[in-house]
Specification:
This protein has 643 residues and is mostly beta strands. 4% of the residues lie in helices and 45% in strands. A hairpin with a 2-residue loop joins strand 3 and strand 4.
Length: 643
């Protein structure tokens, strides 16, 4: 597991509203007008429901079916849920809740669902699932793991640029970039990078299945040599190459890939998030350098992949059943890790009402298969090993052979951990998110609960040997490790007497940073604007990019996670301590909603951008010791103070 500080930074970036800025998200208000924020409590209630279909009271009636909704969870490399990730389906954005989850109903008559997933600080991804009819109460399951972007590199957009990260080289000619309106970009710009080298990195973080759409013919399975998300930014806006401009890209070819020689070519593909497919673009040339290099040209920036089509395949039909009842489990997805080659079965199919699905893999290859489902976990015996043969066969076409047949058992048996969140004075803390992090056979997992008015919480967990408890609330962090005997695992549910008591989880203050600024209004004297300090104004610092909203009945705490709050002094100034974080953004909101003017009376920054979103410098400091990051002058229109 990650160390405490890494987990703490991860949680601070994830809990609360989606953070946008250096790698900013598009304006959801403009692009996705129907954005909705799921309620974490409702989501938990859904997940705790009995997933098995109910028969009619007499036991003999026909069970009604419906198109299963998609239950999707978004998490990072540590297994931490990504809160506020934007999951876009048919132009509508749904934001993940405290557990990183969202539930989306398929469009009427749809044969499949393709969603795009975006979160600040991560490379974008996608998920595809078929629409399957099953009994009421069943849900399609999907887990999407997002790859964190590396540190941004700054360069002069008006000069030739050579950027290098992890052995990948990006060469840009001068004045190659344009903004969203097609205007040339001047001055400093930034590049972000997230890469996957299949011989050493985890292919579970790729943005979609390794299925390519060639220039002609049917889709093909792919074997990746290197894939990377490369993006360019200016003031939080994503940039692209000007029309007719190409960038030179060089990808290292690992020694693990045999059979390549200088002069060979390898197909080059870009990823289309809306199709969840790799689209053939051109050919890369293999050249000699410090080892072999794939030299490619890109006419736009997105996920790019250097890979070749898989020539012939085997297939395996997988049946997923409930370990206790033997009943089929609809909506489960299958992912697999190749053992005899560098590849991966990425989940894009799902089990039907009979619990069946089919996956392809390399002919005569060996893979390990795992099943994923929101309600269930795969038994702890480990992944199921499948060995192919020399007879070609495919799920989608006739290649002469038959698919192998395997069965995977899953269980929904759960136990629970209960405890209390307290502060350093042993007083109970309400509203603190408590994450339980654990390792499963198919990677890290997590559950989350929020402490009640008395500080109590309860987490339902599968049979694991260890659970790490982690909570960050306001400026304090708590951590504990609970060791369990999975062999003596006893089934129990929250609210019962069988939960393991973990005692008190103490939130302790950690290192801080601090911010300061000034709140003004103004008056006009002789056609000049004169600043007027505004004392007594409430100041809130939120994690991430939150809206300056004034919805009826909404309080400051409803906008997002508050990291610090205070009141402006007699001179309109403020200085606030908040938890030390790096590579994260905060939103500052000053003032109160006005009965007539609404959010116009929440202060904006006295700059042309009017932005109230800030990058934290990540420097340890405090109000008492000094060294606070100065956020500048905030302005509120004078009409907000008129009687």
């Amino acid at each position: 597991m990650l160390n405490l500080m890494s987990k703490r930074m991860s949680l601070m970036m994830l809990v609360g509203a989606l953070a946008c800025g250096m790698v900013a998200c598009p304006s959801e208000e403009d692009e996705y007008p129907n954005t909705e924020v799921p309620d974490a409590g409702d989501s938990d209630a859904e997940l705790d429901a009995d997933p098995l279909p109910d028969t009619e009271p007499d036991g003999g009636g026909q069970v009604e079916t419906r198109a299963m909704p998609l239950s999707l969870k978004v998490q990072d490399e540590a297994g931490m849920p990504i809160v506020g990730a934007s999951v876009i389906y048919q132009g509508e954005a749904h934001l993940t809740d405290l557990g990183g989850q969202v539930l989306i109903a398929p469009a009427e008559g749809a044969a499949s669902m393709i969603v795009q997933i975006e979160a600040e600080g991560y490379a974008p991804s996608s998920a595809e699932r078929p629409v399957v009819e099953a009994a009421e109460g069943q849900e399609m399951s999907a887990l999407v793991r997002l790859l964190k972007l590396g540190e941004a590199q700054t360069f002069d957009a008006e000069a030739d640029a050579l950027l290098e990260v992890r052995g990948v080289k990006i060469s840009l000619p001068a004045n190659a970039l344009v903004d969203g309106a097609g205007n040339p970009v001047a001055g400093q710009a930034e590049m972000t990078f997230a890469g996957i080298e299949p011989s050493s990195d985890d292919l579970r973080f790729m943005p979609g299945p390794l299925i390519g759409v060639p220039a002609e013919g049917d889709p093909v399975d792919l074997l990746s040599v290197y894939m990377a998300d490369i993006s360019f930014w200016k003031n939080g806006e994503k940039l692209q190459l000007a029309e007719g401009i190409e960038a030179d890209l060089e990808f290292p070819i690992s020694e693990a890939f045999s059979g390549y020689a200088a002069g060979d070519t390898i197909p080059f593909w870009s990823f289309d998030l809306e199709q969840a497919r790799w689209i053939y673009e051109s050919e890369c040339e293999v050249v000699a350098g410090d080892g072999l290099i794939a030299s490619c040209k890109a006419g736009h920036f997105s996920w790019w992949n250097v890979d070749k089509p898989l020539e012939t395949r085997n297939c395996v039909e997988v049946t997923v059943i409930d370990a206790e009842s033997g009943e089929p489990i609809p909506g489960a997805t299958i992912e697999g890790e190749a053992q005899s080659y560098l590849g991966r079965v990425a989940p894009f199919g799902a089990t039907d009402a009979q619990g069946k699905t089919c996956v392809d893999f390399m002919r005569a290859g060996t893979i390990e298969l795992s099943a994923l489902h929101s309600y269930y976990y795969q038994d702890a015996d480990g992944p199921l090993t499948v060995v192919g043969n020399e007879t070609a066969a495919s799920c989608q076409s006739e290649e002469g052979g038959e698919c192998l047949q395997v069965t995977i058992e899953m269980s929904d048996t759960r136990s629970c951990l209960s405890g209390t969140v307290v502060d350093e004075d042993a007083a109970p803390v309400a509203g603190a998110p408590v994450y339980g992090l654990y390792e499963m056979m198919n990677g890290p997992g997590s559950v989350v609960a929020e402490s009640g008015a008395d500080g109590s919480y309860c987490l339902e967990i599968p049979p694991v040997d260890e659970v790490e408890l982690l909570s960050v609330h306001n400026d304090a962090v708590g951590q504990a490790v609970v060791s369990l005997d999975s062999d003596a695992f006893g089934e129990a549910a929250c609210g019962s007497d069988g939960c393991e008591d973990t005692g008190e989880l103490v939130l302790e203050s950690g290192p801080t940073t601090c911010v300061e600024g000034i709140s003004n209004s103004y008056m006009v004297v002789n056609d000049e604007y004169i600043a007027v300090p505004r004392p007594g104004q409430p100041v809130y610092v939120y994690l991430g990019d939150v809206d300056r909203s004034c919805e009826p009945g909404e309080g400051p705490e409803d906008r997002g996670q508050i990291l610090a709050e205070g009141i402006t002094d007699a001179n309109g100034g403020f200085a606030l301590d908040l938890p030390l974080m790096t590579d994260v953004q905060v939103t500052v909101i000053i003032g109160e909603c006005h009965e007539e003017w609404g959010p116009e009376c929440l202060a904006f920054l006295n700059e042309a951008s009017g932005s109230v979103v800030f990058e934290l410098e990540g420097i340890e400091a405090s109000v008492a010791a000094g060294g606070c990051q100065n956020l500048g002058e905030f302005n509120t229109p004078p009409m907000c103070f008129e009687e």
